[in-house]
Backbone:
């Protein structure tokens, strides 16, 4: 099977949180929309979750401090994150997508891989089916997505990002090299900023440059990852589309109004976060096994720490107790905390006993 030709789709919703908000509030259509923390007239302390394409024209981006977004685009409509709503929409979209594929893998809240090898006989059929899927999602959810089609997950994912929004990019096996070659190195999956900088220093700017580089030098500089980078630059990715469910983990972060070393307040806030996350866990009838906390200090140094319990549970007390235990070592008198987060993963549906991670 490993050598059989495959046709893989990667589907990514366009401006997902912002698009759902525009759908729910037609009166904001045509305006710049920024979803994230409260900007508090430029004094807000959280970050931008996402924004629509109109706001992106002003330089607003996911992960940017909300205060900066306010400066760049004060006329935008700023909306809080309604995570529960986006999860519901996501679950319905994943349901549509998974019905079209033999193998399906959700990848975050608004992306999925579909192995379509047994559903279409060639790329022409693949293109038709991709258009049908786009139409079905639009008809049912009034949301647009971008789809990438290729011989493996790597190419499909890069292709879905190629013509956003509402795009469809089909890259046949014979065109893989010419498709990849001119793209900037940071378009290659899993090449972060640091790796991109290191590659740039070696004179490697595009994926084509990397594909023609001496692989032994890459291994010298990057270890095993050097081989992986070299293979990816050739467009080679043999990883299978996994059989995963729609939700991998459920979590929340909160940025404090003021950096704090009031530990009682930190624990109270942690309990509130756990309760919020727990509501969702109950709503979806999940059991969980892994608890993760995040701590960001005032200097933005960020730590995450996880513990996997020896049993599956759906009890709030297990969640809170584990979260407290994980948080304890990070409470140091000399270090003020800016943000904390709590998350559960290794989810199993208690209704169907279906493993999701
Ligand atoms: P993305 O697919 O990265 O972004 P997007 O769907 O908003 O825009 P695009 O059209 O470019 O795909 O992420 C999906 C959702 O995940 C996004 O709507 C909000 C959320 N998100 C965050 O909360 N924080 C982040 O830093 C990022 C990147 C995304
Ligand atoms: Mg998206």
Residues:
């Amino acid at each position: 099977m490993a050598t059989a030709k495959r046709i893989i789709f990667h589907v990514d919703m366009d401006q997902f949180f912002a698009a759902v908000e525009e759908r729910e509030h037609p009166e904001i259509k045509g305006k710049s929309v920024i979803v994230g923390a409260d900007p508090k007239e430029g004094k807000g302390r959280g970050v931008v979750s996402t924004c629509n394409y109109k706001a992106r024209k002003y330089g607003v981006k996911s992960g940017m401090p909300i205060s900066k977004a306010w400066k760049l685009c004060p006329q935008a409509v700023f909306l809080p994150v309604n995570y529960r709503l986006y999860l519901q929409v996501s679950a319905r979209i994943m349901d549509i997508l998974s019905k079209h594929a033999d193998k399906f893998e959700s990848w975050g809240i608004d992306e999925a891989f579909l192995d379509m090898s047994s559903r279409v006989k060639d790329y022409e059929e693949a293109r038709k089916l991709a258009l049908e899927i786009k139409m079905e999602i639009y008809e049912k959810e009034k949301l647009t997505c971008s789809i990438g089609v290729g011989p493996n997950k790597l190419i499909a994912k890069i292709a879905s990002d190629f013509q956003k929004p509402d795009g469809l990019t089909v890259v046949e096996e014979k065109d893989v090299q010419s498709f990849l070659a001119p793209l900037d190195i940071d378009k290659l999956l899993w090449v972060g900023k640091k790796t991109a900088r290191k590659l740039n220093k070696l004179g490697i700017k595009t994926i084509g440059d990397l594909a023609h580089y001496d692989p032994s030098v890459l291994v010298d500089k990057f270890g095993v990852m050097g081989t992986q980078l070299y293979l990816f630059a050739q467009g080679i990715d043999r990883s299978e589309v996994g059989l995963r469910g729609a939700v991998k983990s459920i979590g929340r972060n909160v940025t404090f109004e003021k950096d704090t070393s009031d530990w009682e307040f930190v624990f109270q806030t942690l309990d509130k976060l756990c309760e919020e996350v727990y509501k969702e866990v109950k709503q979806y009838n999940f059991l969980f096994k892994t608890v993760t906390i995040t701590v960001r200090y005032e200097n933005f140094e960020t730590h995450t720490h996880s513990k996997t319990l020896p049993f599956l549970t759906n009890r709030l007390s297990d969640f809170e107790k584990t979260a407290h235990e994980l948080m304890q070592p990070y409470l140091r008198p000399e270090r003020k905390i800016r943000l904390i987060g709590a998350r559960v993963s290794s989810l199993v549906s208690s209704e169907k006993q279906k493993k999701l991670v």
User: Anything to note?
Assistant: The longest strand covers residues 249-260. The radius of gyration is 22 Å. The chain has 13 helices and 14 strands.
